[in-house]
Amino acid sequence: MAKITLSNLRHSYMPNPTGPDDYALKEIDLDWQDGGAYALLGPSGCGKSTLLNIISGLLVPSEGRILFDDRDVTDLPPDQRNIAQVFQFPVIYDTMTVRNNLAFPLRNRGVDEARIAQRVAEIATMLEVEEMLDVRASHLSPDNKQKISMGRGLVRDDVNVVMFDEPLTVIDPHLKWKLRSKLKELHQRVRATMIYVTHDQTEALTFADQVVVMQEGEVVQIGTPVELFERPQHTFVGHFIGSPGMNVLPVVEADGRATFEGETVALEGNIKGQGGRTELGIRPEFVTFAEKGLEARVRKVSDVGRHSVVEAMVGDTRVKAVVEGDVPEQGAAVHLNFAPEHTRLYRDGWIATEVSS
């Protein structure tokens, strides 16, 4: 297990990059603490896999350094980094038994057979596959195959980091929650440094202590799941995380005030900076109906189970609200209120309000 430091990291697949658009990874500086659970979250093409491949040693970055416990490993090949990786598709040997699959990484390193037996038994207990140890891997269900793939990554106790690259992609939806829970439990038991790459916010937020949100090769926010939800630092984070995502509304800024559809809106604090494209960010969970407020008309009501999502039009702008209990009818005239402590201004995508002290 190791602390991982990424220092001034950039990468381009072009031989002679000349500008920011030529870089698949823009400048990244990160510290991941020993034993932490981390997630790289973002849409396809944002640079997640490129970053994972650089950490594992499959790619050498164009610029910057990678350190494990302050030891520079930038130019070391994968086999000298002590990394375990779990991929989208289970990497196991179908002709081997579960026992031999789990033992293989240790035998490959010449570990004593008595120690191998001990570690295989420990991992099998953690994974709850003791009864499958003598079953051929070819006879396993997809979710159990992925369990064994995870076990192969965890069986070594000398790894610096265990990396998961979209490990639940091929798993049936009704089984995903079981593997997510198992993976979280495994981290709490072994306390290995783990990095989980995914485009699925549910997987990232339920697994990780800290989530790194990426967009177009850039880290736009690092934080706990609560921080990402309650105070997105960028409109992309607000839109990408949450179901439904944050309302991002056009706003006019003047004299330290924000005006939406002709009405002044109270913000969480003072506005920072000047110029640029300004937008208002408010999550649907913090939009309520009241006797007074922004005049709107209900466009659509969607019952999603535990609550309803109401879409209302304020002028020509659509605003979503999450409502528990009774909801207004489609076409009804209503008034909307935004909770000031959760209402903030964004300038060119980045947060531009200060929290009031």
TrEMBL record:
Residues 4-241 form the ABC transporter domain. One of its GO terms (molecular function) is ATP binding. SMART domains: AAA. The keyword Iron-sulfur does not apply. CDD domains: ABC_Carb_Solutes_like. The keyword Electron transport does not apply. Keywords: ATP-binding, Cell membrane, Membrane, Nucleotide-binding, Transport. Gene3D superfamilies: 2.40.50.100, Nucleic acid-binding proteins, P-loop containing nucleotide triphosphate hydrolases. Belongs to the ABC transporter superfamily. This is ABC transporter ATP-binding protein.
